[in-house]
């Protein structure tokens, strides 16, 4: 019997690519999204091993209903890929409390809710894998990404704690940190920045940052690089606590870990062009 895995946020991008990749690798995949019709792209793919299910990670009744459907098929889930995520881009001073709460509701509290719902069956089975999709932003936060970066920092911390408390129960936990990936997610973030280009305080900064940011995703690797990391986390005898995708971005994490914050800031400013804004303010 194929191992079964649940993937949240599987309607596009990383989630969709991961669902297809895992199905081709022999997993039985339960692919979820807030609305089942958004999963139509997965119809007939993966050798018939993909089952689309409607599930909203911010709604406990929706989670319960989705898991009941899986249980009614006599399936005990081996793996969980917490991929569902949203973003809010813009100056912290301008982001509303509603925007902040919305990002945390999906990226953190939704992840926790789904994990809590699945843990009893994994503990009873005495085995399982949980893969949380974090972000390079969880360690290297660019300007105007405060809300998203905060949630991904949270994913880092809760994953460490969860990994240690579940080890005695045979359940292994990993974080996959994507860098820039060529998916629609980056386009949505660019559109958010557009709203602040005319801001009387942050407008010029946003324009400079957006000019750099909008070039990153179209030229970035495809989401399959993340899917491959997820597959390794699900199947390796001794999975790593963290994977960076693409692997070439591991150097960025290493630099962040060893360089002083001031040096990191100056490097980032040169990369994203905001050093020019600093110079113009001094003149």
Automatic annotation (TrEMBL):
<dbReference type="InterPro" id="IPR036291">
    <property type="entry name" value="NAD(P)-bd_dom_sf"/>
</dbReference>
<feature type="domain" description="Ketoreductase">
    <location>
        <begin position="3"/>
        <end position="184"/>
    </location>
</feature>
<dbReference type="InterPro" id="IPR002347">
    <property type="entry name" value="SDR_fam"/>
</dbReference>
<comment type="similarity">
    <text>Belongs to the short-chain dehydrogenases/reductases (SDR) family.</text>
</comment>
<keyword id="KW-0560">Oxidoreductase</keyword>
<protein>
    <submittedName>
        <fullName>SDR family oxidoreductase</fullName>
    </submittedName>
</protein>
<dbReference type="Pfam" id="PF00106">
    <property type="entry name" value="adh_short"/>
</dbReference>
<dbReference type="InterPro" id="IPR057326">
    <property type="entry name" value="KR_dom"/>
</dbReference>
<dbReference type="GO" id="GO:0016491">
    <property type="term" value="F:oxidoreductase activity"/>
</dbReference>
<dbReference type="InterPro" id="IPR020904">
    <property type="entry name" value="Sc_DH/Rdtase_CS"/>
</dbReference>
